[in-house]
Amino acid sequence: MLAFSPTPASALPSAPQGDAGGGPGAAPFVKLDGVSLSYGGPEGLKALSNTHMAIEKGRFVAVVGPSGCGKSSLMKLVTGLLPPTEGSISVGGAKVAGPLKIVGMAFQNPTLLPWRPLLSNVMLPLEIVQPHRTRLRAHKAEYLRKARDLLETVGLGEFEDKFPWMLSGGMQQRANLCRSLIHDPDLLMLDEPFGALDAFTREELWGVLQEVWMERRFTCILVTHDLREAAFLADTIYVMSARPGTIIAKHEVDLPRPRTVDSTFEPRFVDLVHTIRSQIAQVRNEAKQAAKAKAS
Ligand SMILES: Nc1ncnc2c1ncn2[C@@H]1O[C@H](COP(=O)(O)OP(=O)(O)OP(=O)(O)O)[C@@H](O)[C@H]1O
């Protein structure tokens, strides 16, 4: 039986208490405490406002919201690429004060290096991220085995010698996923990773990502516009308001795993997607009304 337990916006705490992100008492692995971000200083463009999140280790979280609400900005804050204007962020119990090493990232554009075969592309982070960089030469066979295992898991075992331009977009994104996981990150950040793919390939890759995550159980934060994708993959879905973005609802998705494309046709799955769609439509409308009122 499929089930989900939505938390409406009205039931969300404005402060972090009560948002433990999982089991009672478990310290969150990723924590955002009253985070705001303004581009161009405190008087600049406000992208995020008073955002609280608490994500337990090993959870799969999706963040959805209207276009421009600050989802990508949130990713940059959590990975330490940008400092918050207000509030604090911690990952693994430590305050984020600069770019994190324990993160793997994948974006819409796979950005594989065209002159490197797939296996060599997947190995790339090991040449950059410590301690792997120092260990690489002496432990090359072990790392190669790992890269090949990953490629095998995503169905690219036979393609390790191919160059990215010889492969389809879906295959490139599979390889990209392997590259983001080769250094065993504790946290995987995915920003619209399947946004450029056709619907069938996208659904196929949901299954691939779910399989890799179920096997490795890293903490994952996925930003997506695709509400079905969020419901398919996530344990928890955070819904954001229009800019300046803040969390307006949180849904726990208790669908059994592994989820399949058939799960997406179950009434409870459809209801969940519909509920989130309504919430986003409402905040978009409110933002439009506010903009109209300001202009008049
Ligand atoms: N480097 C920047 N300098 C100034 N403003 C920025 C910068 N990056 C983003 N913004 C603005 O901050 C707001 C939030 O942007 P962000 O990319 O985080 O939103 P998003 O929810 O990821 O958008 P989308 O869903 O369209 O990808 C937008 O108004 C955007 O124009």
TrEMBL record:
Region Disordered, annotated ranges: 1-23
InterPro entries assigned to the protein according to its UniProt record, in alphabetical order: AAA+_ATPase (IPR003593), ABC_transporter-like_ATP-bd (IPR003439), ABC_transporter-like_CS (IPR017871), ABC_transporter_ATP-bind (IPR050166), P-loop_NTPase (IPR027417)
One family name in Pfam for this protein: ABC_tran
Organism, scientific name: Aquabacter spiritensis
UniProt superkingdom: Bacteria
Keyword Oxidoreductase: no
Domain annotation ABC transporter: ranges: 30-267
UniProt KW keywords: ATP-binding, Nucleotide-binding, Transport
Protein name per its UniProtKB record: NitT/TauT family transport system ATP-binding protein
PROSITE patterns: ABC_TRANSPORTER_1 (PS00211), ABC_TRANSPORTER_2 (PS50893)
Family that this chain belongs to: Belongs to the ABC transporter superfamily.
Biased composition (Low complexity): 1-18
Keyword hit for Transport: yes
Recorded GO MF terms: ATP binding; ATP hydrolysis activity
